[in-house]
Amino acid sequence: MVSSTEYGSHTWDLMLTVDHQQVEEEIPLQVTGDLHVGGLMLKLVEKIKIAQDWSDYAFWWEQKKCWLLKTHWTLDKYGVQADAKLIFTTQHKMLRLRLPNMKTVRLKVSFSSMVFRAVSDICKMLNIRRSEELSLLKQSEGTLKKKKKKDKNSKEPATEDVLNLCNSPVSSGLPANSGLYSKTMTPVYDPASGSPASSTITWFSDGSLAEQNCRILAFSHPTCSPEMLAEMYQPRTLADKAKLNAGWLDSSRSLMEQDVLEDDQLLLRFKYYTFFDLNPKYDAVRINQIYEQARWAILLEEIDCTEEEMLIFAALQARTRARYHVSKLSLSSETQDSTCEPEVDEVEAALSNLEVTLEGGNKSNILEDITDIPKLADNLKLVRPKKLALKAIKTYWFVFRDTSISYFKNKESAQGEPIEKLNLKGCEVVPDVNVAAKKFGIKLLIPVADGMNEVYLRCDNEDQYARWMAACVLASKGRTMADSSYQPEVQKILSFLQMKNWTTCSQAASEPENVDMKPECFVSPRYTKKFKSKQLTARILEAHQNVSQMSLVEAKLRFIQAWQSLPEFGLSYYVVRFKGSKKDDVLGVSYNRLIRIDMATGDPITTWRFSNMKQWNVNWEIRQVAIEFDQNVSIAFTCVGADCKIIHEYIGGYIFLSTRSKDHNETLDEELFHKLTGGQE
């Protein structure tokens, strides 16, 4: 027998808060250090005496900002003492998410799971495959200032149209359907109109999406106005663009651990710009959301483009709007038969699934690819930087072999030593094109020991430019023209040039005229100030001639493809201070490289490829990222205005995405993701 005195010495009072409308006061419990968390839950529920399902409840430790989810651990093992503030609360709570198409959905999300898992569950609710490409973003204070200022002056703030999805299985805290990535479990869409096929619409009634809600997420609703654009944050400098990426949540921690509260609003965005396995049959929602993220990036000038490119983007938007109005009346009557087509990666493959026939689209003989590496040889003009007068432009005989360009005085001297040989592996390739002016230039930024060597090439026509540009793009990634992606790359470039060259097509574009067309809705504010409304309308309709026969989904895919062709595509910017430097620079993070950029001029200084990276780590004490590359190259920097964990996660995330394979496309190696991105803080 144990005396009451001895018993009292081993027990202590723990005050518990219950997040329940029928329990208003704190509840004291007498506990011992060897009591496990599950036993504490049982004692608390027995004392509350409220009959309900408590399975979604768990303890949240307020001071330490952590969940006590390991119910077999004892209080001593967790370090819980009498002064601990434990809240017994639900793990799934309401959250508002602003999607890329600017629609807001309200749904229940796990506040105790890591963000990576929470995003996976959210994407299953929204029927978005490849959840690893997305993440959650908090808007930084800098990007909200303009909007707040506008709100103060507005007399009647607009009420937000929120799509409520809180009745789905995942929202209710039930396990999500693990088979969503399997094609037999995924709703099938009409590849042209994006409508869910009638045979698979039952998937939506079982989940959160009824057909009406599916259309909201899979279709674009262009209601953008100049007034709406004026109220939104528009970055003017690289430092402004860096603010857009400062708020990414840590994928290895839960929402509660990152101070996200119930019914807060976050942005759901595509964080990684590697869109794997796009297929119009299964990805109507995903394609539309990628298109919308690209569209808003163009309209808000988050990414730079030329006037010619802006008109192409405007024409494609006009096309999607016209097709949207048609699809509201009836399904598209265009023919398609993509059920038996093999899947190929990325946007070009998705266009192939829509039966967009491209020359050279057939795979070449594999044995020929291995044994015969093609080469290009032609007269090109070389433009020397810093000498932009006409006399600085000179014609040479260029030979492209493997991943290098050599140039000679003329064709006859090509058997001897070249004037210069340029290795393009790891270089930056920037298009410099104006179709109307017959200007087809390629700007090469080649990494050298002390920075970047700039080389400008001028081609004579579209075909020559497409062949050489495609070869340069592949060479920058370490691939030759023998690669099976060379011909599709050539055709992609030609297709983009054809869209720009709208004067070659004489067909009238009638559909946008039938829609109440407001050109200010299709271009960024910079161009609405530059042109009058009638001028913009005429130029957009002129550009629309080359896209007037596209289906709704094809127009979106072409828009995404054009977005991917922009020099700044896929770059996420951060302000950093490199070790040993006295001034801040901008670091651009892309899917395969890091770029150091001069903040004042915007010129790239140095490029480092992930393929040459040996290791990267973070010194958490001084918040410094250190990276080692081949050839004894090492860099170190601290982040200004953002957590260094964000860049660390970006690098690991892109490396993780590069491991994806069609053979293992139904499950994600979540453990590998956290190993590559989590760090050890």
From TrEMBL:
An individual GO BP term: cell-matrix adhesion
Subcellular location(s) of the protein: Cell junction; Cell projection
Gene: Fermt1
InterPro entries reported for this sequence: Band_41_domain, FERM_2, FERM_central, FERM_CS, Kindlin/fermitin, Kindlin_2_N, PH-like_dom_sf, PH_domain
Primary residence: other
Official protein name in the record: FERM1 protein
Annotated ranges, domain PH: 381-477
Superkingdom in the source lineage: Eukaryota
Annotated Pfam families: FERM_M, Kindlin_2_N
UniProt GO cellular component terms: cell projection; focal adhesion
GO molecular function: integrin binding
Organism: Prunella fulvescens (Brown accentor)
Record keywords, A-Z: Cell adhesion, Cell junction, Cell projection
Family assignment from sequence similarity: Belongs to the kindlin family.
